[in-house]
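User: Structure please.
Assistant: Input sequence and predicted structure:
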Amino acid sequence: MMEGVCHVIMAGGSGTRFWPVSRAGRPKQFLALVGGLPLIRQAHDRAAAMSGAASVYVAAGLAHKHMVLEALPGFDASRFIGEPFGRNTAPCIGLAALELRRSVPDGVMVVAPADHVYTNPGDLVRAIHSAVAAARAGEALVTLGIRPSRPDTGFGYIEMAEPAAGARTEGARRACRFVEKPDAATAKSYVASGRFLWNSGIFIWRIDAILAALEAFAPDVWKGLARIDAALGGPDADRVVREAFQDMPSVSIDYAVMEKAPDVLVVPADPGWSDVGSWDAVAELNDTDAAGNGVVAPDGEVLQLNASQCFVYSTTGRLISLVGVSDLVVVDSGDALLVCHKGDSQSVRSVVDALKARGRGDLT
């Protein structure tokens, strides 16, 4: 167990790429897409194994509080950090840091998304241990970088320097720069150089260090956080949090802080990471039969005749039959059905946009 380390699971987001089972009322992180348990439950259990369940917090929209408690049996509601409005990761992380500082002012904070999957969790634990040691040793803001397995254009990248000297940064590299999602040629050059890692969205730092960095580099966010800090624990805290969040900019922690801070370290990791960004990714992470077909339908039945390389996800009890087809993704939620070719599932969010344009908010 890692003493004095708190884990914050960020469980915001709408998951529009996982329509029709992911809706505004039940986003991706609450679905059992891989592994038989909701992604948020898997994230919670990983963190609890490292530092104990009492050190795990969840930050999510207030509207989803009941879903968090439903997905995490035994979770103490006092460790739920409610966001009144979605304002991206910088305000979310700032609010969480303020809450944690009240109980563990000298603690280290590990921030991780709720909707990622790891097929090599042992390496994830190793990397987090290294990052915690580096964060404890100074003011550095630490992140995990994933060793790229391919020149992917869907991820941000971190360029790392040569191995940093000194015991405090053992296993860590200096982060030279954060770069946005590149084009194919640039991504290929990044991977070939050996100096670039995928940006995992996992951060480790001392609580006082991230608050100082927000104050220094994100004044528009800090203005609201300072208002909240003065009100926490008082009778007007909920109102102040709501008003401050409403006034805050929507900005990522990468843009607000990480790209500007002078002391940023990155720990390379190879934990079999997936951000589970599309139905294609879900298909790759689930088991397949001899024909390459995968099925997640715990309450239903799927019959595949002369079908290959297809993936079916169903939350209904009805029979689904695929005959003489290949390379399809089929998702059945009961009130809506998605059928698309593999490779096109990144465009599923366009279905949500089209439904909203038609006034079908009941399906989004």
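The CA atoms of residues 1 and 51 lie 5 Å apart.
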